[in-house]
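debug: dumping io for the single-chain case to check the tokenizer round-trip. Nothing else runs in this session.
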Amino acid sequence: MRSVPLGVAALALTGGVSAQQQPADLIVTNARIYTVDAVRPLAEALAVRDGRILFAGSRRGAEALAGPRTERLDLGGRTVIPGMVDAHAHLVGLGQALRTVDLVGTKSYDAVIARVVERAKTARPGEWIRGRGWDQNDWPDKEFPTHEALSRALPDHPVYLTRVDGHAALVNARALELAGVTAATPDPEGGRFLRGADARPTGVLIDRAQGIVGAVMPPASRGELREATLAAITEANRWGLTGIHDAGVSPEALAVYEELARDGRYRLRNYVMIRADDEALERVFRRGPQHGLYGGRLWIRAIKISADGALGSRGAALLEPYSDDSGNTGLVTTAPERIQRVAVRALQSGFQLNVHAIGDRANRLVLDAFEAALAAVPVADHRFRVEHAQVLDQRDLPRFARLGVIPSMQGSHQTSDMYWATDRLGESRVRGAYAWRSLLNTGVVIPNGSDFPVEAVNPLVSFHAFVTRQDAENYPAGGWYPGQRTTPEEALLSITLWPAYAAFMEAESGSLTPGRFADFVVLDRDIMTCAAEEILRTNVVMTVLGGRIVYQWEQGAGSSTVR
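debug: decoded output
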């Protein structure tokens, strides 16, 4: 949907604006506005000029800024919050997921195969079939599948199906054949081929083993990347997102982002984390940190590394073996020495380093690497981040605040994983999982996110999880380890101002404060005061970026409260 000016008709006023004051481009009235500004947390009106907030306060104050060309928007008493920001997402991954076989919610391996077979009916001979979203934890037996049934159903098409967390994949015999993977193929460092009793690969690839098969798949063309990016931006806007932190962007994707931004088609503020292969790092270090490019659309000043895998695929690196897999402590996917080297280089070059760490061992290794790097290159306001910080040993909880490290967490991971997390971790260790309150009590902030397309794009899913520790059906009663809940005020900060802070953008966005970007979202109910079970029934009525509508809900066209 093309960006369009707000309002429908300018209303001339007599007087109001002083000779020294330029009039507002837009006045928003008749709303309950949560500004996330401690000076004035609630307002009833906004004034916007040149894409930024000019005023937030009373209707009378806003009207005083009107001029003969000022546009008006009466919101009929609806709720307004700052534009929501997903602090850990994968934009191209979402765009590609929108164009591949959707396996989210499949309740059996047979259901997965049926969807893939249906897609193959429209594929060219020998074309790769890709899908994403399966989760064996949702199936009756909860065991990883093997390729045989998939290979029988699709012997001629190579098939690559990414698990919901992105840290495992299922491929068929044709894909293994094209990649040259046999019983003699060794596991790559930081990855694993699951194998049968005869040592032959079962078709499940864990973490870096995915790259062995992925290397023989044809890469997306530039045109496909453009279309995937545009589709993902449209989807993000639909859910009230005005910004994301894009975790692990390739040079090819970044080039497409810049091209679209130059063309005025990038309707999102993207805090880009560059994927940390050596060649890409050298390029980005030579380029140097860049802020607010193309009218505040792109920030390029962060680096992304992965230290381990995911809990669902038993690749998260744990200090002790998995409770349901006694011979397995997970995978370290990047050597701690490399994390420390990149951290030192980042500190020297003015870049932020953000490291994926899910297991307690991975989190400790990352914190150790950060501590050593900061001892070598002391920087007061580095804002290094741990992405996910899902499972923490109690001894490591206070280290985030002590080192100035930000735990970037995703509320929806807790409500997706709670059904089986105790199986993986046991009753004792699970108390250090998704430990929001424990971390907040140490003095850190927690930028919230979804990790989409791993989880639903809707940021209110993670808002709801922070407040309730419950799923969409209000399970379990009282919440899962409810002592780790946040307040609604903290949950709102987690999708607005705290992501801004985590991206060095708090002077530009995150609150409806004069001078900040005029990014805001109109909701059809008040998520700060409504009953918890009402939160996920909330519709995004309008998404506004820089004072311009980028999404507007057409009532009667269907609710936006679904996935």
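debug: round-trip ok. The first helix runs from residue 59 to 63.
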